[in-house]
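Lab notebook: predicted structure, single chain.

Context: the supervisor wants predicted structures on file for every construct in the current expression panel, including those that have not yet been purified. This is the next one on the list. No modifications to the sequence; it matches the entry in the shared construct table.
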Amino acid sequence: MKMLSFKGGITPPERKELSNKMPIEAVFPSNNTVSIPVTQGGAPNKPLVKVGDIVVRGQKIAESDAFISAPVHASVSGKIKKIENRLTATNTDDLCIIIEADGSDKTDFMLKMDPFTVSKKDAIQRIKDAGIVGMGGAAFPTHVKLSIPAGKKIDFVLVNAAECEPYLTIDERNLQENTDAVIDGLSIAMHLVDAEAGSVVLEENKAYLIPTIEDAIKKAGFTEKMGIVLVKTKYPQGSEKNIISAATGREIPAKGLPADAGCVVQNVGTLIAISEAFREGKPLIDRPLTISGEAVKQSKNLIVPVGTVIGDLIPEVIELNDNVTKILSGGPMMGFSVINANFPVAKNTSGVLFMRKEELCLEEETPCINCGKCVEVCSCRLYPVLIANSLKAGDMKAAVKYGLMDCVDCGTCQYACPANIKLVQRIRTGKTAFRAELAANQAKKTIKEGK
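Prediction complete. Output recorded below exactly as produced.
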């Protein structure tokens, strides 16, 4: 099978061997309590419950009227103990609903639904009602992705099975253990967007899964419509722009979306959630994730109720050595460094890493030597050094011109920089400032027009 790829990128140490042989293990927090963030993708939600209420697993507990939003459901049955701001995986204090489980197995799932016999409008509404978001990290509401604008034709639905972030292996394990659900979710997505073809896009380090996936496709009767695309093991292969480029040869235009290239990309976990929403009526209330890093005594792949606080799994489930230097929510390239482990697992938490000093680059920044390494590895073909320099000089217009808002924050530039310049942090800060500037200008315009 020919291996495809994209321009640029890097090949950091994979570190997959720490966890990729570990089966997915279902675990529960030792204190029987979850802390569920009210908003987990899209517009801010409002709680539908109050302190003292009794809720059932699968019951909707927060939602928004906005189209680009995803409701949140109780991941355990029990009593609402508190609704308050708590630390979350982005190192911010966000509103959370704290539920103490009562140990019952009661559920409040939706009725089962056949996605191929109901209207596509109703099927897409089911995906929204299930609170499904992108589980690869972005948490973008899935029903929005599958609501294709008029005039756009989708040719391919791609399963993003690259899992290019080092350490993380939960998608790999799901492909091995829940293959049928992945293929079922893919068939549903293809039906909803009228795509004629679907492809599972695998990096070559997971080529051993090809027979398993081929068997599942054959068993489901989709050999004429589905296949496997093998791509080179390279970071950031899992970026939508790169996976589309490698798998189809198409390119998303600047400021465009995958639909502009005739594609829809869905993560492995997201497709399983889609299958469960129809076949079981189950909302997205459980999250599979990888626990890894050299400061962990035994790396694992787990599935936990959404809202499980990582610290509540220590030490019963997660045993740590005494040399933890940094904790990351997500992978080492795009994940967030958190101040401690007392944050809840959200729908988009793909992994948590406990890392020792030797795994990290802790060297101080030195002056830029204009080597161009950041430009050479950038898969978006941007000029990270010029974006960073423009931001440093306070020239937002120039930063945008050089591609500030086209950057996908993958971190390849920072990894390749011999001067250890924190390029990603500067670009992320710049994006936040630019969005705030746009919002302020829009507010001024609205006030002026109001007068």
